[in-house]
Amino acid sequence: MAHVSAAERRPQLITAAIALMTREGVAAGSTRAIAAELGVAQATVHYTFGTKEDLYRAVMEQLTGDLIAQVERAAPQGAGFEATIASMAEALWRTVEEEKSGYRLLMELALLALRTPGLSEARTAHYRQVNEVTERIFTETASRAGYTLAQPAGLVARFFLSGFDGLTMQRLYAPQEPVGQTGLRALIAATIALAGGRLDLGDVPAG
User: In which residue ranges does the UniProt entry place its DNA-binding region annotation (predicted)?
Assistant: First the structure.
């Protein structure tokens, strides 16, 4: 059998861990089970990552990167500030509806990280990175559209993400509750109200 380097095996194991834990939950994600998912020896997991916490941290980093990519794709190009918030919220909500298992896994890992010292850094990095990219999008959109925010972009971003996380948790853990579009529209309106900006017509290109 051809030798596979740790660099090549790493993304394979991350993918296998995500597939297994998405399907069966974080509790099922032992190194033995993850190795079996990929069809390799358990020792391969430890050789590649060292510990289970190291593998879990890599999984969180992958899921965070995927989420950030979703946030960036959801931001429309050339839209005004208020339209950008609405479009982002609606696009992200579609991913919740279509990829519930992935969101559930990320939340399970975040909760596990609260009690696992080896994962605390990954948890902190996840929230920091998602907040930073959302703040950047809001800042750039407001600047491009000539929209002066009444509150710091970071505060508006954190408010939006906190509300979206709450809606997501309700959707995942209480699917019978009628949140969905009603809650989403309320979050969009509340975020725009918090932003409380004004349109500076002098900064808007003519045409």
Answer: 30-49
Query: Which pTM was predicted?
Result: 0.81
**pLDDT digit string, tens, across residues 39-52:** 999 999 999 998 89
Please give the Cα distance from 193 to 190 (Å, whole number).
Answer: 5
Task: Find where tokens 């005004």 sit.
Answer: 80
What 3-state class would DSSP assign to 197? coil
Q: Are 150 and 196 in contact (CB under 8 A)?
A: yes
Backbone angles phi, psi at 78, to 5 degrees: 85, 0
Query: What distance lies between CA 182 and its chain's CA centroid?
Result: 22
CA-wise closest residue to 196 among 84, 81, 76, 88: 81
Q: Which two tokens stand for residue 206?
A: 């003519």
* Degrees to nearest 5, angle at CA 166 with 162 and 170: 170
Helix, strand, coil percent content, the chain, rounded in steps of 5? 80, 0, 20
Q: Long-range contacts made by residues 177-186, C-beta under 8 angstroms, separation at least 24?
A: 180/93, 181/93, 184/89, 184/90, 184/93
Q: Could you read off the pLDDT of 93-126 as tens digits, one per residue?
A: 888 888 778 888 888 898 888 888 888 888 888 8
Separation CA 94–CA 112 (nearest Å) = 26
**Quick check: helix, strand or coil at residue 41?**
coil
